[in-house]
Write a structure and sequence with these properties.
- The structure is a homodimer.
- Helices cover 35% and strands 24% of the residues of chain A.
- Chain A is an alpha/beta fold.
- The first copy, chain A, folds into two domains: 272 residues, Zn peptidases (Aminopeptidase); 110 residues, Alpha-Beta Plaits, CATH 3.30.70.
- Chain A has a six-stranded mixed β-sheet with strand order 1-2-4-3-5-13. Chain A has a four-stranded antiparallel β-sheet with strand order 8-9-7-10.
- Chains A, B: Its cofactor is Zn(2+).
- Chains A, B: GO terms for molecular function: hydrolase activity, acting on carbon-nitrogen (but not peptide) bonds, in linear amidines; metal ion binding.
- Chains A, B: Belongs to the peptidase M20 family.
Chain lengths: 389, 389
């Protein structure tokens, strides 16, 4: 399918021109539910209308653009325009602007298709008081139907989609990791979005005088925690399973140079596509702690199930990459995306392009124009294939 | 030398009776330079005067009680009455009330001595805005002679002692560690007070997405720091030198469950009697870090030299313990005490008694009455020996 790569690349500048205060070291600031997020949605709506696409909005401000008059289950694609504070240029915007280019190219060319295209721009994907991926979760009935600080229960109820609105859903995103870059591969095809399990561990010791207590009489909570942190890293690296495990948050009590740490509390996060793999990994760590005779308390604080992406849609993406001679690889997405929620109601797929050094949620976020365009083309070709098969 | 053990034990209750709001789970609150510290000093002064001891105060509120009219270098002993917030019953108070019992017993018995006794009660020993062991450092000329928030330069100048005011100085203190208790020994005879060297270490990594970044592509600052913390503990335990090493303070950036730690800053504290041992230990850790290919930055932030205690005074204390059939051991003091400053101007010694579980600076601080009295007796006998030799 033919798209206008230059217009697509220019569209980042056009979006940015709405917010002259953004960019540079400050990055981009379009928080969920803000006036700036709404302004960005309005700009996209205008672009769609100018290309002859029929635009609608739901009561919680998701934006839809439909091309085609078949009705029935459509081929959906899109992403979000909100950012974290001081976010990067590409996160959310890339998938949205690529989706814009795909649908307006189809509309301008009056491309004949078997199924309608449904551009979709979600509100509130980033962390926000109503929870990340708010817009897509609301569409798919995964948000409580009650009044909250932003919307009424009636609005949330009205946002739920009619069954079979979508046949497929595709999201295009930067990888937010460096695996593709390091493998020198242009297209990543996630097979699934990992589930997330978080555990709070507490290690206790005796908070005694750091000068007066000989080494032999110490019970140091931080020494215990540090052994655990190493075990987490070593065992995750050695694992034959597809998982990641991180101790990203840790606090020491009383945290004074002159006192042996009496307590350390940390969060272990495990992500895996197969939830049993995540649970089993944590069980293996518990066994290790027992064998190492380290006393601890643990409680599970988060348990988010994983999402499988559709194998046939993966095949369509792969065929598109092969046709364009793009190097590709299959992997899993550790990060969550709107496509996770959408996969509950449609056969869904995700497309990654490389992200330099894996930097994201940061003004330094960078992907080459060549990779951005390659991803756009694979999205366009995949959408066309699904809309005509 | 004969002392009144029951009066000594009762004196804790008499001191406490001045502050009915103190005690129990709240512990004791007589901060440095507070009205409550002054009230405690005034109470001690009254006790001394009632026993016929001549009381003086210097302009920074240290309290002195002299018994004997020889003049010349005296046998000094004492401690402090200020506490940390929510402190224990014994820290400071034990050495002060034992010194009170020794001098009033001598005075009441009109004990004939070759040298005068000089009860000494220091102000501001605990951590305070002018620095710990303030009173003893001021007496010994180790405090800058400038106006500060509490005293004028003239007052600090006037507090400096004339040369040869003291021939000896003895301090009695709870151990604040569990070495004596674990060895089932009643009397500890420190040979020195350890020096303290502190280093700030920074470990850097890449603060990438904890879900999106595969294990193989991670640069995790906390994993590096945890390896270092283990090396500190293992190498200090394995060392043949008398040293302790502690990582008591640590912070993680950005400290979020979903982000791989990008930076960890921690404080390494090393204490040893021989400063070269402390420096060498840190050097050894730096060699280990280089061999482990862990990148880091380090800077020295504290360098307090150690103090030797007088070998002949140690011998006097040992003889006193032997005469009373007390089990004793030599060790070094990791904690600092007023005797450190006093050792600069007098042949000085320190006496420890067991401290249950090593708990100190805490309402749970506890030493048995039998051990308190044993320490009092060793102090009394040592003072008598020094005053009559």
């Amino acid at each position: 399918m033919k798209v206008n790569a230059q217009r697509f690349l220019d569209s980042f500048k056009a979006l940015q021109a709405l917010f002259p205060e953004d960019g540079g070291d400050e990055g981009y600031n379009r928080p969920a539910f803000s006036a700036k997020e709404q302004q960005a949605h309005a700009w996209v709506s205008t672009q769609l209308q100018q290309s002859g696409v029929v635009v609608t909005h739901d009561p919680i401000r998701n934006t839809f653009g439909r091309y085609g008059q078949h009705g029935g289950p459509a081929i959906g694609f899109g992403s979000h325009l909100d950012t974290v504070n001081h976010g990067g240029l590409y996160d959310g915007a890339y998938g949205t602007l690529a989706a814009l280019e795909v649908i307006r190219s189809a509309a301008e060319q009056a491309l004949p298709l078997q199924r309608d295209l449904l551009f979709t721009n979600f509100v509130g994907e980033e962390v926000n008081p109503l929870g990340g991926t708010f817009g897509s979760r609301a569409l798919t009935g995964q948000v409580p139907v009650t009044d909250n600080d932003y919307f009424t229960a009636a609005q949330i109820q009205a946002a739920q989609l009619a069954p079979q609105t979508y046949r497929n859903f595709l999201e295009l995103h930067i990888e937010q990791s460096s695996a593709l870059e390091q493998q020198q591969v242009t297209i990543g095809i996630p097979t699934a979005i990992a589930g997330i399990v978080r555990y709070e561990y507490q290690f206790s010791g005796a908070a005694l005088h750091a000068g007066a207590t000989p080494m032999a009489y110490r019970d140091d909570a931080l020494v215990k925690a540090s052994r655990f942190i190493q075990a987490v890293s070593q065992q995750a690296r050695a694992s034959s399973e597809q998982l990641v495990a991180t101790v990203g948050q840790l606090s020491v009590q009383p945290n004074q140079p002159t006192v042996i740490p009496g307590q350390v509390t940390l969060i272990l996060e495990v992500r895996a596509v197969d939830m049993q793999v995540a649970y089993q990994f944590q069980h293996q760590l518990d066994q290790w702690l027992k064998a190492a005779q380290i006393d601890y308390h643990v409680r599970k604080i988060v348990d988010k199930v994983s999402a499988q992406l559709d194998p046939q849609v993966q095949q369509v993406i792969q065929a598109a990459a092969e046709q364009r001679h793009d190097r590709y690889t299959k992997l899993f997405s550790g990060a969550n995306h709107d496509v996770n929620a959408m996969s509950k109601i449609a056969a869904a797929g995700l497309i990654f392009v490389p992200s330099h050094l894996g930097i994201s949620h940061n003004p330094q976020e960078f992907t080459t124009a060549a990779d951005l365009v390659a991803g756009l083309q694979v999205l366009a070709d995949s959408v066309y294939a699904l809309a005509t098969e």
